[in-house]
Write a structure and sequence with these properties.
Layout (H helix, E strand, L loop, with lengths): L10 H20 L25 H18 L8 H57 L3 E6 L4 E4 L1 H7 L3 H4 L13 H12 L4 E9 L5 E12 L5 E10 L1 H15 L4 E6 L4 E4 L1 H7 L3 H4 L13 H16 L5 E8 L5 E13 L2 E10 L1 H33 L2 H17 L6 H29 L11 E3 H10 L7 E5 L7 E3 L3 H14 L6 E8 L4 E8 L31 H11 L4 E4 L5 E8 L2 H12 L5
Parallel strand pairs: 12-14
Antiparallel strand pairs: 1-2, 1-5, 3-4, 4-5, 6-7, 6-10, 8-9, 9-10, 11-13, 14-15, 15-17, 16-17
Helix pairs in contact: 1-2, 2-3, 11-13, 12-13, 14-15, 15-16
Amino acid sequence: MPYQSTTRGSTVAIWVPALLSIAVFIADTRTPRGVVLCTAYIPLIYFGLQFSRARMVFLYAAIASIMTLAGAFLKHPSAVTLWMLLTNRIVNVAVIWWTAEQLFQHRVVREVLAQQELMALRQDAAGKASLLATIVDSSDEAIISKSLDGTIKSWNRGAERIFGYREDEVVGRPISMLIPTELLQQEAQILDAMVHGRAIEHFETVRLHKNGSRIEVSITVSPIRDLQGRVIGASKNLREVGSRKGTEAMLAAVVNNAIDGLLTLDEACNIETFNRSCQEMFGYAESEVVGRNINMLLPERYYSEHAGYFADAHRSAESRNGASRAEVNGRRKDGSVFPADLSVSAFQLAGNRHFSAIIRDITEKKRAEEEAANYTRALVRSNQALDEFAYAASHDLKAPLRVIDNASKWLEEDLEEHLTGEIRENMQMLRGRVKRMDRLLNDLLAYSRIGRKTDADFFEIVSGDALMKDVLSMVTSPAGFEITVDPAFAGLSLCRMPLQQILMNLVSNAIKHHDRKTGRIDVIVDPGEKMHTFEVRDDGPGIDPRFQARIFDMFQTLKPRDQVEGSGMGLAMVRKNVEVFGGTVAVESDGRGSIFRFTWPAQQPDIERAVVASTAGAPA
């Protein structure tokens, strides 16, 4: 039986046990003395539980005890003696009080447990209320509650951020302070919906900031009900959509103005979006393709091949490997076919699979590649012709020079007695010009083969010390010249060719063009992780800045060839060798002395790749 926590006992708890106890008392007095009906008083004790005070059960137990004992003296005489009857009644009274005590203890325990449960529920409710308040207050959205008359009751930080008002500035004031005058009717409609218990979701409208500016917002309104289910107010969630719309507009503008074609497809490969570049590329308007299958943009013979790209894109998305990319063929509205670069990515949106595709027309790229291939073939033919010319220069052109040299000697021998000093000098000058021409042809042949002809020396690795010993052994150094080599060469491993030829040319030039009988030449190296830097320094006459850019050109000399023997090809070959292997060369001279500086790959694999790249396509 449920307990009633009231200050007064219920009417039932007073009158029902009174009537029942009278009925039991009368029945008890009308029965013979040997019959005991007083046990019927025990259920009356339970009515004491109907009162808010637990001790009321003892009052009912006392009443039941009095009526039990009183009934013993008012019963009809019988064979049972009075002391036996009293003993029986005393036992029943003891049972009545024991029952009352048990009910009292049970009531106390239940009340304690109920109090503990109530406290736990209150603490839980307080914790949840605190958590809810924290969530509401930290939300980026504005969460506002109001009464049915439009008065603001609560205001979170999101509302403060969006509208600029503090909580103490708005609570208790009408919600209309946030609404433009021309939109007040909307608020009346919202309140009417709340009174009838209807929610409003994602209603986009305009509200006012504290500074008077208008804010585009999306509003969700829900009714607030009391425990009886009556609507007593409304809760509003407001989210700014102005910045979102701006972002969406910007994104749409970027997509629509992208150089590449951008389109999206659903899982069945039906087109969902089709940007402006796609429209220009394929010749279709967006309305002509949206909702149709991607196959309309592809040549029929490639249907199965293109379907595989989208399957690959899905597998790539699942394994997080990125997009599937391939060169494909597209079909324009007029039926013409063009090559395209296609990149496909799969993504999930609202639980559904979609594809994004980037398409680039590579017609011009293919045309450029074909032109480059033609140029390469032409270059191979040109290199072959150059080789043939170099062969002719080294054989066919040198043969007449040998004849001229030999003929001049024969004439000089045959006409020995008739030659004057001037004629002998002219004959020597003739043979000198023949030697110069022969040297020029040799240098021209060597220059033509740089980067195209290699031998075992290009892959031979020697120590830096050994390389410099070979260089100095092949350079004719006058007695008054001192050549020093940087100790850093000792710790380096270098390829023999063409590095040996480069250093030999630079050292020889420093000696050849020196203006004194004595001089100093320093060969220095600065080891690097990727590139070594070499320098050849001299204390010669220096190089005028006007000529520094020209000295690396073919056939360029700073002095007449009659003064300095040379073909003018040495520095040109130095530059070509250095650049073929990915280095740079430069000269510094400011007044007296010159510094020739060049860089060279530090790693042998880099040199080997340069050799392979430079000889690719060259005829054998």
